[in-house]
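In response to the reviewer comment on reproducibility (Comment 2.3), we provide here a single inverse folding case reported in full, input and output, so that an independent group could reproduce the run without further information from us. The C-alpha cells appear first.
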C-alpha cells in the first residue's frame, strides 16, 4: 500500500452530493408536489 503525502491527501475528492444537485432535486420534488396537488384539488383564483 502506498502512503500519500499531505498535498495528495488534500486533493482527494469524495463522492458526496453537491449543493447544486441537492437544490435541483429539492426544487423538482416541490414542483411535482404542486402539480399533483393542483390536479387532485383544483382551486379557483380569486
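Designed residues, in position order:
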Amino acid at each position: 500500500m502506498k502512503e500519500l503525502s499531505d498535498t495528495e491527501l488534500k486533493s482527494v475528492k469524495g463522492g458526496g452530493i453537491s449543493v447544486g444537485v441537492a437544490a435541483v432535486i429539492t426544487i423538482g420534488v416541490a414542483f411535482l408536489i404542486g402539480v399533483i396537488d393542483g390536479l387532485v384539488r383544483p382551486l379557483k383564483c380569486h
